[in-house]
Specification:
There is one protein chain. The chain is an all-alpha fold. The chain contains 6 helices and no strands. The model has no long low-confidence stretch (mean pLDDT 84).
Length: 157
């Protein structure tokens, strides 16, 4: 049977799970005396985190927070999609402020994403120069052909 955490241990676990350092969480939960050294606080906090019950509580709190974030994002996506559908179908009136709010909420929840991939070729300067010269030659050749065709026809349009 798992040992129940004391109120101070539970507070320490909540502080660590919320992102505080172990030492700051220890200071918050246990209010050590003024003369307690930073090294002592670090050691005591590390010992607390070494306890299976406290580590399990911290892990459970972090998992619960992550699930809540995912659920919130999904809820926001659903809200945005439902509103956009209602506005599209004309069942609800939309103004520019509501549309903008829906857009921002959708972006924040990851509804509108654009993936762009860029590929580059590593070339040295002589390869780049050769490519530029060939393109210029092709361009000049097509321009010369057009001029020859125009001369043969008698006029340029």
């Amino acid at each position: 049977m798992a040992k129940e955490l004391t109120p101070k241990q539970a507070h320490f676990a909540r502080c660590v799970a919320s992102g505080m350092t172990q030492a700051d969480a220890y200071r918050e939960a246990y209010s050590p005396k003024q003369g307690t050294t930073a090294a002592s606080i670090h050691t005591l906090a590390s010992r607390l985190m070494g306890q299976v019950e406290i580590r399990s509580r911290v892990d459970a709190l972090i998992r619960a927070r992550e699930r809540a974030v995912v659920a919130s994002a999904l809820t926001d996506r659903d809200k945005v999609l439902n509103r956009l559908r209602a506005w599209l179908e004309g069942t609800e009136e939309a103004d520019s402020n509501r549309l903008r709010a829906a857009e921002l909420l959708g972006k924040a929840s990851g509804l509108f994403t654009t993936d762009i991939s860029v590929t580059t070729k590593d070339r040295d300067s002589s390869q780049v120069a050769a490519e530029i010269e060939s393109r210029l030659a092709a361009l000049l050749g097509s321009t010369a052909d057009a001029l020859d065709d125009a001369d043969a026809g008698g006029s340029i349009h």
